[in-house]
Task: inverse folding
DNA sequence: AAGACGTGGTA
DNA sequence: TTACCAAGTCT
């Protein structure tokens, strides 16, 4: 093993090669304009399991809408979900607001700077804690994400399964030795940037790599065998029925999803799992029991949507229906809204397709 | 420990 | 088309 641990000369060279490379090759990103802890925090939450290119427009909009931590703390749930609409993993923004409120009430609006305190904030796990501490506060704390595990598994030739939660701790232990105490921010970001731009999952650019000489996998020709990662299971398909229901005022019925679980707190058209979409009686009964809505009988589906989540596939048949009564027993989770009002509410991507295709008649 | 939790891009 | 991914966290 080329680098492993005790050789201080090699460690110093590794650090300086990585940090120098980072300053010369880092991308200009909106969250790199300054080190404001709140701005760094928001970016780290958005970046979880999400590509840089996807995040950029959301980040710009989010910071325009909630420029200071206090603005986010005071926003409504519908506002924050709308700002997150389409980004996925919606509990991230709900947790972020909970955490930001905690910072306002408990830390006088100042993001705490110890791992202990910051880790107790909702949605801040080991990676995000390390990222904020190092990037915003220049603390020598590891920030182990998928990039870092891929890069270090190659450099240090570590073949533990990076899909396993405990493997992260192995890399954190190594990092406490390896991290550059002079510039932990550039070191951590350099590791991630290297993973994103050079030490990629497939066909890594070893010939361009600033730490090639320190890389055990490169010297042994193992860069394509590492990291080791077990595969995940495939998504399970479900038959879903969705209903586009109008009343006599030309309004649509929408419902708010439960506060926990899949797509928590988002709005949707009445939507539920069915054994079969051709069992009309089952559909009518579900509408009556679930929504208190009697409808004029509906015909064949007017739209089919396949939507793939990480662990589920929704095969949605969309039906059109007219409510027999103008008002329904409207709990807080049911609402009649005009076409124009629809855009105020955050919908899952699968139901955005109903709005664009069936309501607006776009391609 | 393993599964829940989204979405859009790429080979 | 299927599979895997992309700056993880919570239960």
Result:
């Amino acid at each position: 093993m080329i680098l492993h641990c005790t050789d201080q000369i090699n460690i110093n060279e590794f650090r300086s090669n990585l940090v120098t490379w980072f300053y010369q090759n880092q991308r200009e990103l909106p969250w790199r304009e300054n080190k404001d802890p709140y701005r760094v925090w928001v970016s780290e939450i958005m970046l979880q399991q999400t590509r840089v290119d996807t995040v950029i427009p959301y980040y710009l909009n989010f910071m325009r809408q909630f420029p200071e931590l206090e603005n986010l703390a005071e926003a409504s749930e519908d506002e924050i979900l709308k700002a997150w609409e389409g980004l996925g993993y919606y509990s991230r923004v709900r947790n972020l607001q909970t955490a930001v409120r905690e910072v306002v009430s408990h830390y006088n609006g100042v993001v705490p700077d110890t791992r202990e305190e910051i880790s107790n904030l909702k949605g801040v796990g080991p990676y995000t804690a390390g990222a904020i501490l190092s990037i915003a506060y220049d603390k020598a704390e590891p920030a182990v994400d998928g990039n870092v595990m891929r890069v270090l598994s190659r450099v240090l030739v570590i073949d533990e399964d990076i899909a396993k939660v405990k493997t992260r701790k192995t890399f954190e232990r190594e990092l406490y030795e390896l991290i550059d105490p002079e510039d932990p921010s550039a070191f951590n970001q350099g590791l991630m940037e290297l993973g994103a731009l050079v030490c990629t999952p497939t066909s890594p650019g070893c010939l361009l790599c600033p730490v090639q000489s320190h890389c055990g996998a490169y010297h042994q020709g193992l860069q394509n065998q590492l990291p080791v990662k077990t595969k995940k299971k495939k998504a399970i398909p479900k038959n879903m029925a969705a209903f586009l229901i109008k009343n006599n005022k030309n309004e649509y019925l929408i419902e708010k999803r439960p506060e926990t679980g899949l797509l928590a707190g988002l709005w949707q058209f009445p939507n539920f799992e069915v054994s079969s979409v051709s069992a009309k009686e089952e559909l009518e009964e579900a509408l009556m029991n679930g929504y208190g809505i009697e409808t004029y009988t509906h015909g064949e589906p007017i739209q089919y949507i396949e939507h793939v989540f990480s662990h589920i596939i929704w095969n949605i048949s969309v039906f059109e229906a007219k409510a027999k009564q103008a008002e329904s027993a409207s709990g807080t989770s049911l609402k009649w809204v005009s076409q124009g009002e629809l855009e105020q509410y955050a919908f899952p991507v699968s139901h955005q397709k109903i709005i664009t295709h069936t309501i607006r008649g776009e391609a």
Notes: The beta strands of chain A are 236-246, 252-256, 267-268, 271-273, 303-308, 312-322, 334-337. Residues 49-51, 53-54, 86-92, 164-166, 202, 232-233, 261-264, 307-312, 348-349 of chain A lie near DNA strand B (CB under 10 Å from a C1'). The longest helix of chain A spans residues 8-25. Residues 8-220 of chain A form a domain with the Endonuclease III; domain 1 fold (CATH 1.10.340.30).
